[in-house]
Amino acid sequence: MKSKHILLAHGSGGSMMHDLIKEVFLPAFDNPLLRQGNDLAVLDNPGGRLAFTTDSYVVHPLVFPGGSIGELAVHGTINDLAMGGARPLALSVGMILEEGLEIRLLEDIVGRMKLAADNAGVPIATGDTKVVERGSCDGMFINTSGIGVVDESLRIGGAEARDGDVVILSGTIGDHGVAVMSERKGIRFTTPVKSDTQALHRLVAHMLEVTTDIHVLRDPTRGGVATTLNEIAMQSGHGIEIEEDLLPIPPAVTGACDLLGLDPLYLANEGKLIAIMPARYADDMIAAMRSLPEGKDSCRIGRVVTELPGVVRMKTGIGGTRIINVLSGEMLPRIC
Amino acid sequence: MKSKHILLAHGSGGSMMHDLIKEVFLPAFDNPLLRQGNDLAVLDNPGGRLAFTTDSYVVHPLVFPGGSIGELAVHGTINDLAMGGARPLALSVGMILEEGLEIRLLEDIVGRMKLAADNAGVPIATGDTKVVERGSCDGMFINTSGIGVVDESLRIGGAEARDGDVVILSGTIGDHGVAVMSERKGIRFTTPVKSDTQALHRLVAHMLEVTTDIHVLRDPTRGGVATTLNEIAMQSGHGIEIEEDLLPIPPAVTGACDLLGLDPLYLANEGKLIAIMPARYADDMIAAMRSLPEGKDSCRIGRVVTELPGVVRMKTGIGGTRIINVLSGEMLPRIC
Question: Least CA distance to B36: which residue of chain A?
């Protein structure tokens, strides 16, 4: 690139935009779908029901311990597909860049997206770039959308939770939220907390080999485990009871939360899932999940009940019970 | 809504975000796909090859004569699908909102999106909302992605242009660019120029009834007719020759361009297409296109040639020839 920074002309549709695409995006994301070079990608149809999802990423700062907006954008949309039991087919990438953004930083983030997409085995099929004037966006925002296919036999969704179902969590919580907040506030911990950003579609595929009778899969991102469980309780019309002593919270996250005044139950996770299914599958499922790196800390955290429909309760370590509400206000803006 | 303005908490994942979705987005966009209420939509698979496209919209100002960012976001992505010969199945909507945005304005734009999607017969299947702090984005940005199906027999793409093909334009040019620029600069014309934003998928379906042997379809948005023809010339390795006297430029657009120092050939259009096909279909195709409102001003504007591969030339009204280059710099930032 002749320029070291993004200029408005990089979004104009003219030759500088073509150069940006040719020199930064195409070499990184190169694959046969993208190489079609039209405003849309055309894919073979593998059959099955189609899954379709979208997410915009506005995390601040753009890079943080364990990842960046790039990994989040790739993993997050793959995970939204996986949470419907879908096998991801392809991603789209829509970038909004601020005039003045360092092209070296853009290249770094694009490289991280490429690596994340390659590792996940999901091609970036089509894209779009816009540039806005300095001060009209904060560095860069990324939208990724994803398409996938869902086996006809699966019926996975928040409304499917049933009385007596077990609630399983695929690993520790709070890591992503603490990683971003500590970077934003310039705090260094002796044990650094890294974002858990990772793709979960292989874990889900592995879980579906244990049973296809999974009722709910949901990744507890914005709003954390507390908000996700509340959504499921409301959608299904059941209550959910979790046990504080069963929650896998790393000591470093607990320490950081005490310091920053945060509650790990409400912190975003970017590489974890909550699975709800008949309790008889729990042992086999947890064993299968633990056999993959992305599920190595999987554990049971609670169950679905008929009492108090729509409400999430937690049995506390000291023997009491606490209602886990949805927060009305903002806890952590721009966490993903 | 209790608040009249967007607050950071509307993006938090908590109860204020649920209220925003429940009170603003769901009532407007309501359809069975969106009502699934999960992070992804699941659709029946109609067969055929799959088409997938994405576009972000950052137009400034948000509302302008003839439309708004809302219509652009719906029509633009439908048109990207249509330009591949795809029948649109569903759209996703990813919104990035600035803290302080008036909720009345958001509702207005969401209502325009709903109307555009309904008129086009394409459901908004899934969505996402993020909120960033005041000053971190300019009002609102919208990403729409789209999926569709393409008949197995079609081979439409910029590289398919052939020697002797006719170049057809579906109507007047420059309207959208002038409408946005005049609004931005606060200029009122005696004959107001309105954006041409409209969906073109029905026009394309009608064209494919004349012949499926269409080589190229492309909508001349950012960078205008000049840039789009250059892309096709480069992708196909052919030259393209257009005739100035054949270009349908409304007098009001010509007048505004003179005043604002703009060239209509480089102005964005949001409801027009360029079609390239064997010349023998030209008369029937133009007649068919003119039978629909969105193609009523369709006309031949030039042809594909072997001379000067990759170059676009224009025969001027006074009998000369002018090379139509790709602009390197920015002509009109944030036009879509």
Answer: A157
List the single residue in A with minimal CA-CA distance to B98.
A137
**DSSP state, B291?**
T
Rounded to a whole number of angstroms, the distance from the CA of B232 to the nearest CA of chain A is 10
Residue B292 at interface with chain A, using a CB cutoff of 8 Å: no
Q: The whole model's pTM is what?
A: 0.96
The owner of tokens 């950081």 is: A256
**3-class DSSP string for A238-305:** CEEEEEHHHCCCCHHHHHHHHHHCCCHHHCCCCCCCEEEECHHHHHHHHHHHHCCHHHCCCEEEEEEE
Evaluated on CA atoms A177, A180, A184, A187, the torsion sign reads: positive
CATH 3.90.650.10 domain span(s) along chain A:
158-324
What architecture is domain A8-150?
2-Layer Sandwich (3.30)
Tell me the DSSP string of A306-317: SSSTT-EEEE-T
Rounded CA-CA distance B265/B272 in Å is 13
For an interface test with B, give the residue of A53, A99, A328 to mutate (most B CBs within 10 A). Answer: A53
Residue A289 CA to chain centroid, in angstroms? 18
Quick check: B130 and A58 CB within 8 A? Answer: yes
CA distance A228 to chain B (A): 9
Strands A86-98 and A124-132: parallel
CATH of B158-324, one of 3.20.20.140, 3.30.565.10, 3.90.650.10, 3.90.1170.40: 3.90.650.10
Tens-of-pLDDT digits for all 336 residues of chain A? 678 999 998 988 888 888 999 999 998 999 998 888 778 899 999 999 999 999 999 999 999 999 999 999 999 999 999 999 999 999 999 999 999 999 999 999 999 999 999 999 999 999 999 999 999 999 999 999 999 999 988 999 999 999 999 999 999 999 999 999 999 988 888 888 999 999 999 999 999 999 999 999 999 999 999 999 999 999 999 999 999 999 999 999 999 999 888 999 999 999 999 999 999 999 999 999 999 999 999 999 999 999 999 999 999 989 999 999 988 766 688 999
Interface with chain A: mutation pick from B143, B201, B334, highest number of A CBs within 10 Å: B143
| Residues of B whose CB is below 8 A from A9 | 328-330
Q: Which of residues 73-92 of A touch B (CB under 8 A)?
A: 80-81, 83-84, 86, 89-90, 92
Instruction: Mark which residues 200-229 of A lie under 8 Å from B by CB.
Output: 218-219, 221-224, 227
Find the CB nearest B14 among A93, A149, A223.
A223
Residue ranges, CATH 3.30.1330.10, chain A: 8-150
Count how many residues are written for chain A. 336
